[in-house]
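Please check the following for our workbook:

***
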Amino acid sequence: MKKHELTPGYEISPVIKGGWQLSTGHSLTTSIEADQAVADTVAFVEAGISTLDFGDIYTGVEELIGKAIKELAVRNGGTARSMVQLHTKYVPNEKFLHDFDRTDVATIVERSLTRLGVEQVDLVQFHWWKYEAKNYLATMEELFKLKEAGKIRHVGITNFDLPRVKEFVQAGLAPASIQLQYSILDRRPENGLVQYCIENNIGILCYGTVAGGFFSEKYLGIAEPSTAETRSSIKYQLVIEEFGSWELFQELLQALKDIADAHATDIGTIASAYILKQPGVKGVIIGARNISHLKSNLQIDSIKFSEAELMVIRNIISKSSGPNGDVYELERYSEKHRSIMHTNNN
């Protein structure tokens, strides 16, 4: 898979393997088999999906990635570290934000490095739960100090809205990237943030492009599910509700199925490819728990849409009622969206 430049001098695979699905507590019904998760991660990297996205609060995942790096070294020798791009997060506890201690930044980043078994992480993406707590600028200052010290190669952010991104840029703390929820169902980034990122050379990394697995043949032609298997399922069923209705989602699924058939692939691949082709987008994060979809994941960057196919998708989008507002606004301030999150895992 040909790499894309995220920021000058730094390239990533445009399809990124996400790690939230591997965290303890993500699934409501099954547990993670650690050895298999490590083997699957190695398989992704060796196949060309070499950028790994995870987080300090994804319980157990940094340790899994550390084991995968060791296995890559066994299989590939001294080139192992250069084969992979490591993207973690820094997510301080919500309850400490008003009385934030700057030293926590270095403490958690050092913990991530230890868990991963590396001296430098390629990207640390900063998330902040409450804008009412104004210490997010101070936190960014500490992350940039760690960048200067060589602990972090690049500093990114995740789930910040347009006013806060502007604050960072104006304070001389421009991030290399922003990770946000962006899909055919959820186009809130298009409400000003995408254009600002393009103008300020901030690469956009997208999660939720397959809506927690709802963009799948599995859900085509069935009634709306009444139970959930994972926290992702709960989260993205709410997004479908904001989009309009299960009936409108079914219309979208059928259209994506028709397009997928024309490209000899599946609905999830088409949904991710559509977002990868949007302006400013540098990568899409695929929450793969195993290698069952690896072959189709490798197709995402090569999909070329006809104008007629794009028009079909846009026509259905025009019927949607939301989600509305800025990036992550519902997840911060709407209780039914917010209750899915674990805000005190550090």
User: Anything to note?
Assistant: The radius of gyration is 19 Å.
